[in-house]
Amino acid sequence: MEKYKHYTPVTHYWILSLGRNSKKLIMVLSDLIALPLALWSGYALRLAEWWPSSYLSEAWLLFLLTPVFGVFIFMRLGLYRAVVRFMGAQAILSVCKGVVALAVLLWASAIVLNIQPFPRSVPVNFALAALVYVGGSRLLVRNYYHWLLRHYIEKEPVLIYGAGGSGVQLATALGSGAEYLPVGFLDDDKALWKSTVNGFPVYDPSNLKELITSHGITHVLLALPSVSHSQRRSILEKLSEQSVHVKTVPTMPEIISGESVDSLRDVSPEDLLGRDTVPPDMLLIETSITDKAVLVSGAGGSIGSEICRQVIQNKPKLIVLYEISEFALYSIERELQELLTTRGLSIPLFPVLGSVLDPDRLDRVMRRFNIQTVYHAAAYKHVPMVEHNVLEGIRNNSFGTKVIAEAALQAGAERFVLISTDKAVRPTNVMGATKRLAELVLQDLAQKGGTTVFSMVRFGNVLGSSGSVVPLFRQQIREGGPVTVTHPEITRFFMTIPEAASLVIQAGSMAQGGDVFVLDMGEPVKITELAKRMIKLMGEEVKTDQHLSGIEIQFSGLRPGEKLYEELLIGDDVIGTQHAKIMRAQEESLGRDVLQNILAALNESLQTGDSERARALLQEAVSGFRPASPDVDWLYQEKTEKARKPLH
Q1: Which residues, 6+ apart, have CB-to-CB distance to 97 below 8 Å?
Q2: Residues in contact with 48: Cβ distance below 8 Å, sequence separation at least 6, in sequence order
Q3: DSSP per-residue codes, 46-84
Q4: CA angle, 615 as apex, 609 and 617 as ends, to 5°?
Q5: Which of 116, 120, 80 is nearest to 103 (CA)?
Q6: H/E segment holding residue 452
Q7: Helix 400-411 vs helix 430-448: crossing angle, to nearest 10
């Protein structure tokens, strides 16, 4: 809603408050006046007289017909539907067409009505005058309206980073809006500095601090849809040195898909981390998906749902969405149905409720749909949650993987890909240990032979997933803080969900059996620095001794099972693949007898509810598992507390 300044004059306020129908009526009335005036101008210019009465008295009927015909023609051309403040070349062209048509009609009317004398140059002069009066009046109104917007509406002064085509479009759109007032451009091109683009000066980005002070800048709008993520990150690092709210226009692929340039939004996680993606190898994707029957377990989760989207886009024979959560299954099924409708695809889609711990149901599903490719994304992934629920973490992550993998093997599936994690490497928590045990199970199944090619893909944190720090930080900053970080030195690897899902699919197609693939996650990110950058880019200050009113960063301490640094490899033996972002790790495996004995003992611990023994067995099975915390399983704590109570 437009915010008018308290000193807005009544006349200006009335004009700004006019409704759409009132504005149309004013345009019609102005044309009814302008067209007879243009006809008089045509005579006056031809005869060099202010009032050629002998000529005008013969043509009085034309003065009545011209405005009526003119309004009708302009109405047919849609001139009264055009919004004057957005009037551009297309509207001027409509005015030109209408004026020419009216001039021809004027000449024809003079002949039909036998008006004498009627100089032949009058229609030409009329057309020129009408173009000025009708078109010019609209341009004057447009400029007047923009002047009102600048002077009498509360708008945030902003700088636009990028003086190219997108920046110019954005400045034009904002000039007609009621939220932001562009005061200039920032651009890295030295040739543009101190020049004017679209009526606005172009500044050196290094002068941002002075511009913020002199112009009261509150926002910088990033209008660089075509730059790479690394370039965008570099720009954002410079901007984050100042406490100014940064928003960005959509990327070029989003603009091509129909999103407007002026659809501003907060800086995305991808922008903050600046990771450039490698275009997918379509042959690798098609190998596992195109014309294949695909099953995705955990289809409603962060990774599972994105795999489903990418599977759909690559035209499988059918896709089975296997999910234990009814709501998650309903949500992804509805989204995929809409995607199929939008793209005009007719791919059989089967939402199936079920647990990965149900071997009979999995066997029936695999055989009923003749599944060829399985992406196993169902897992408990939140480290503290699994730390407090040890037995369920083992049951779901390790035994669940064993059950669904054996079902795929027995049904003759071609490929089985496990979504693993960097936390499986020298784990300090139960979640990571259960995922490493799941890897060991698949390595063992691969050694047994069979038609199913088993593989697993490790990667770090994905941006935007449930529990991800980026949306959490953004919410905390909007609420005024504090922003909570567990430890000042904690670092994590990050990747976007679409990139992770794409690389999982491509890695699975390269598998030969028992492969452990590791994704190139780039450089680890220090979470404290990420929090500080987000605070700055959202226009706030980090609380310090100099800025006591800023957003505070609080350190809550490492949670149970959490470690400061994540790794992607257990050993140093890694080889490249045909894809630049995918590596193949040469990891050790357990002997079959040793693994089966541990699994049997773990199953017994699950039956008896002994989380302490289960953790000990995980340490025996998983190389490098060193728990960072004591057993904090809720039921184990209850049992311990009961044991400590004296008997009465």
Answers
A1: 77
A2: none
A3: HHT-S--HHHHHHTHHHHHHHHHHHHHHHHHTTTTTS-G
A4: 100
A5: 120
A6: none
A7: 20
Strand ranges across the sheet with 196-197? 196-197, 200-203, 180-186, 156-161, 219-222, 245-248, 265-266
**Dmax over Cα atoms in the chain, in whole Å?**
127
What is the band of 19 on the pLDDT scale with cuts at 50, 70, 90? Answer: low
The length of the chain is 648
User: Tokens 């890295």 — which residue?
Assistant: 188
Give CA–CA dist 124/55, Å, rounded. 17
Residue located via tokens 């308290």: 6
Residue 537 in contact with residue 240, Cβ under 8 Å? yes
Scan for tokens 């023609």, then name that residue.
73
The per-residue pLDDT for 318 is 96
Average pLDDT of span 581-604 = 88
Beta strands 483-485 and 494-496: pairing type?
unpaired
Among the listed residues 511, 503, 390, the one whose alpha carbon sits nearest the alpha carbon of residue 442: 511
Q: Give the type of residue at 158.
A: V
* Three-state SS at 391: helix
Asked whether 226 and 200 are in contact (CB, 8 A), the reply is: no
Q: Look up the pTM and report it.
A: 0.67
Task: Round to whole Å and give the CA distance between 353 and 524.
Answer: 37
Query: pLDDT digit string (tens) for 556-583?
Result: 877 665 666 665 554 456 677 788 788 8
Domains with residue ranges and CATH for the chain: 10-150 (no CATH), 155-267 (3.40.50.720), 282-463+494-522+567-621 (3.40.50.720)
* Summary mean pLDDT of the chain: 80
Q: For residue 323, what are the β-bridge partners?
A: 353
> What element of type H or E holds 304?
helix 302-313
- At residue 12, the pLDDT reads 45
Strands of 204-268, DSSP E? 219-222, 245-248, 265-266
Distance separating alpha carbons of residues 439 and 518, to the nearest angstrom: 13
Its sign, for the CA torsion 541, 545, 548, 552, is: positive
Exposure b/e, 483-492, CB count within 10 A at least 16 = b: bebbbeebbb
Residue 180 has φ and ψ, to the nearest 5°, of -120, 145
Grade residue 269 by pLDDT with cuts at 50, 70 and 90: low
How far is Cα of residue 637 from the mean position of the Cα atoms in its chain?
43
Q: For residues 223 and 164, is the Cβ–Cβ distance under 8 A? A: yes
Task: Give Cβ neighbours of residue 591 (< 8 Å, ≥ 6 apart).
Answer: none
Determine contact, residues 531/235, Cβ cutoff 8 Å.
no
| Spatial contact of 522 and 230, defined as CB atoms under 8 Å apart | no
In whole angstroms, give the CA distance from residue 311 to residue 288: 9
Q: Is 7 helix (H, G, I), strand (E, B) or coil?
A: coil
Q: Are 295 and 288 in contact (CB under 8 A)?
A: no
Is-contact 125 106, C-beta < 8 A?
Answer: no
d(CA 489, CA 562): 13
Helix (H, G, I), strand (E, B) or coil at 207: helix
